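Exercise: predict the fold of this chain.
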Amino acid sequence: MLLEENEKSDISELSDEALFELSLKQPTFFVHVLDRYQVAFLRKAKTVMKTDEASEDVVQETFTKIYLNGNSFV
C-alpha cells in the first residue's frame, strides 16, 4: 500500500496505542508498527542472540506473536 506524504505524517503523529489498534483493524498498517520498533528490537536481540540470523528470527517471531495476540493488549 502506497501512502501519500500527508498520510505518512498523519501516521507518524499517532500514538503507539492508536497505531496498534488501527493495525488490528487494518493489517496493512502493522508495517508502521514494525517501522517504529524493528531496529530497536533487532539491536537488543543481537546482544542476546549474537548472530544477525538468529536475531532476525527471534524478532520476526516476536512481532508475529504481538500481532496475533494484539487484542489482549488493547
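Check your answer against the key: The mean pLDDT is 89.
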